[in-house]
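Please describe the entry underneath.
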Amino acid sequence: MAIPILKNWQNYFTKNPNEGLGSSYERIVLNKKLIEIIKKYNCNSILEVPSFGFTGVSGINSMFLSKQDYPVTIIDNDEKRTDLIKHVWEKVGLNAIIEYQKDFSKLKFSDNSFDMSWNFSALWFVNNLNKFLFELNRVTRRVILICVPNRSGLGYLSQKYFSSSDLKEHLNEKNIIPKNFIAILRKYNWKLANWNYIDCPPWPDIGMGKEKFLELLHLNFLIRNKSTRNKKNENSCILDFYKGNKPSFGNEMLKYSWLEKIAPKFIKYFWAHHKYFLFIKN
């Protein structure tokens, strides 16, 4: 979903943590990219800030990194959500430093505290982009990774049209425009090492269950395999994977990555759900 869930994000903590096929796929391909970057640039300490930015169970974007024994620190700007995030991590049995901070204009860490800092679809919750990126620059030694929604994607454009009031009231859309944060980080001596589209499955970025959408269009063959025919697996939650109860979950999600692998950029321009921007210190 291109526009964050602003009003009922608590339901994933209190009612049903099942994020659905779309968000589960998104997290698995993101995990793969994070590990690739961390290994390439030899990063051993990770800061995720802000942590809230998208649908599903907030605060678990870095959970796979903790599962691989990387030290993780997570910052959220809502006290209640911070407590809920801590509870989820405890239930899964993984460790992270999870802290509340009301404002992101001054981070509570000393200079060069982390090898890598990153966030996913979260920049539009930052009040002052310049101050925040200065702080990210200050506390980061090697790599900054920023992931933003694909603003040229059909899903983003359609949801923006139907959610325009929420977008204007709650989100700073200018923050997720790449030229804006690229210019600021360049000023702080960060080089854009790479960018690309990410999260490009065979379904559009829409605010409804992907299985249901494709079924309505008689296109469910695009995702038909053993897991979609097995009701138990359909209801599997990514938290089960992080607990170690469903080790095959990641591979099941990657079965849907065929479009991500073969689609040229001009297709991803309209279809991919996100972009990532990788910065290294000059």
Observations:
- The mean pLDDT is 88.
